[in-house]
Description:
Layout: H1 2-37, E1 41-44, E2 48-50, E3 56-61, E4 68-73, E5 79-81, E6 86-89, E7 93-103, E8 106-118, E9 121-122, E10 126-130, E11 134-135, E12 139-140, E13 147-152, E14 158-160, E15 166-168, E16 172-182, E17 185-197, E18 200-201, E19 207-211, E20 215-217, H2 218-221, E21 224-225, E22 232-237, E23 243-249, E24 255-261, E25 265-275, E26 278-290, E27 296-299, E28 311-315, E29 328-331, E30 340-343, E31 349-351, E32 357-359, E33 363-371, E34 374-383
Parallel strand pairs: 2-8, 10-17, 19-26, 28-34
Antiparallel strand pairs: 1-3, 3-6, 4-7, 5-6, 7-8, 9-12, 11-15, 13-16, 14-15, 16-17, 18-21, 20-24, 22-25, 23-24, 25-26, 27-29, 30-33, 31-32, 33-34
Amino acid sequence: MNKFFKKIAILLCVMFIAPAVLNCLPSVQTVTKAEAAAKAKAELTNKNVGICSTPEYLYIVNAKSGAKYTYTSNNTKVATVSKDGKISGVSKGTAIITVYETYKGKKTKLSTQSVSVVNSKLARNSMEVIAHTGYLAPIQYMNFKAKYTYTSSDPSIVTTDKNGFIVGLKGGSATLTVTETYKNVKRALGDIAVSVTESSISDESKNITIGINSINSVYDVIYITNSSWDVVYSYESADRNIVSVDSRDDGWGYTETVLKGVNLGTTTVTVYETYAGVKRAVGTVEVTVKEIPITSMKLEDYYLEADGSLSLTYYLGNKGDFSLSEYLVKEPFNATTPVIFTSSDESIVKVDQDGYVEPVKVGNAVITASCGSFSAKFNITVSSY
């Protein structure tokens, strides 16, 4: 009987324990996959690197905490690798970069990466440039210790400046032949076909209208396509009795050129550009000066309070930095109907006809801006500090 009960006991144990063991197996498998996914590995930014050019890097993904990673090159005459995994090209050829992981005193090979060190080459064989603007030559894997020379088929159209930038001098096309000299060895990289576009007056700006007595920044009314920061632009009026060309402070510490409508009529304004001492006419703009009546005026919604009013506070001893005109929206924007500012109590606050406020004493007043049949009111509070 004892043997019989022992057999029964063993059978029952197998029946109850076996399912539990089997249920545990998927969990063991899942942990194994998670561990494999988290295993450190080395990734290379680019398998090609230029000679004395921008380096490439080996990055360790899923690096182990507490582990140390080291790098070696099997051919330092071709490529070197720093302790941080920066790979630098030395000469043309192929090198094998090996990555080691040292963890808890055990050093293992993590991976090997094949790196090709290549010569510089042209990234493309044609380019379009805007006149008088410098462009980097399209050289891939540029060798920073080499010297590059550019021979132009027409230096009056395309040249290079002292910093090696490609510069178009006038409209047209020319070819640049690029040569690299490194360690006294010359190597031809090839030709670049360069097309140069000059600046010009945009179609929308060839005929413009400004208001009588209005002052207009040239940047607001005359648009130049393909303009360059390296060029100085100037403007000349054919009849200063109709349109004058003047300068003013733009409010940000810079001087800007403005056109003023002096008398009714039509004249032309010629735009010039000057680069490296050479002056060229960009184009001519026909400018008509006329009366432009206002059709609407209101306060800018952005500044309004919930009840639709606009309240401003000024402090004794400080004049307003901004004109009240900044708070007005006029239609059309270049209307010539004058805006007249008046104060309800000049013993408290004064305002000039340009809309600048001068606080006089503590108190409250209303400044009204009137333009034709339209008006807007500013609730002014003058306070002391």
